[in-house]
Amino acid sequence: MKDELLRVAGVIDESIVDGPGIRFVIFTQGCPHHCAGCHNPQTHDFDGGEQVPISRLLEDILENPLISGVTLSGGEPFCQPKPLAELAQELKRHGKHVMAYTGYTWEQLRGKQDADIERLLAQCDVLVDGKFIESQKDMLLRFRGSRNQRLIDVQKSLQAEQVVLAGV
Ligand code: SF4
């Protein structure tokens, strides 16, 4: 794995609310979306947080055998697709489930035609897409904050070249 620096706001070592199973959650630092009612405004500044080598994150994740998956949250993970693609590739090699959040829609991400974004998507199992829209907030939604956001089966969607919803 090529070691890269990732700008991180923080991590949660073990979570059961950020995706299926017991997960390690990485909150990336830096977000361009500024959704009204955002729960993590401290993650917006692209100069905030700290830069962490992905090798250190990988070590922390793999040393806990209870962790079945990793969630890339934000901030906006897709503003740092290069280090995250590298990390996610290694996670998949170790059999971990990878889920990512993004304030972009699936269509916006694909439309960027960015090689690193495509590399990161290729490693993801599930993507939760779209901005948090306060007027569509729904506390009953699984792993999502507002009704516009979709739980996307990334691999099936890449194959079908259209959004296929995930059944997690
Ligand atoms: S995309 Fe997420 S982190 Fe960024 S402003 Fe919206 S809710 Fe906050």
Report on the architecture of this protein.
- The protein has one domain (5-160): TIM Barrel (Alpha-Beta Barrel), CATH 3.20.20.
- The chain is 26% helix and 23% strand.
- The protein contains 5 helices and 7 strands.
- It has helices spanning 54-62, 81-93, 106-111, 115-123, 154-160; strands spanning 5-15, 23-28, 50-53, 69-73, 97-101, 126-129, 150-153.
- It has a 7-stranded mixed beta sheet with strand order 3-1-2-4-5-6-7.
- Helix 2 links the parallel strand 4 (69-73) and strand 5 (97-101).
- The mean pLDDT is 97.
- Bound molecules: iron/sulfur cluster (SF4).
- The site of iron/sulfur cluster has 13 residues, from loops.
**Rg (CA only):** 15 Å
Structural class: alpha/beta
Strand order of the largest sheet: 3-1-2-4-5-6-7
Count of the domains: 1
The run of helices and strands is: EEEHEHEHHEEH
- The count of DSSP E runs of length 2 or more, i.e. the number of strands, is 7
Task: Please give the structural blueprint.
Layout: E1 5-15, E2 23-28, E3 50-53, H1 54-62, E4 69-73, H2 81-93, E5 97-101, H3 106-111, H4 115-123, E6 126-129, E7 150-153, H5 154-160
Parallel strand pairs: 2-4, 4-5, 5-6
Antiparallel strand pairs: 1-2, 1-3, 6-7
The chain binds iron/sulfur cluster (SF4).
Iron/sulfur cluster binds next to loops.
In short:
By secondary structure, the protein is of the alpha/beta class. Helices cover 26% and strands 23% of the residues.
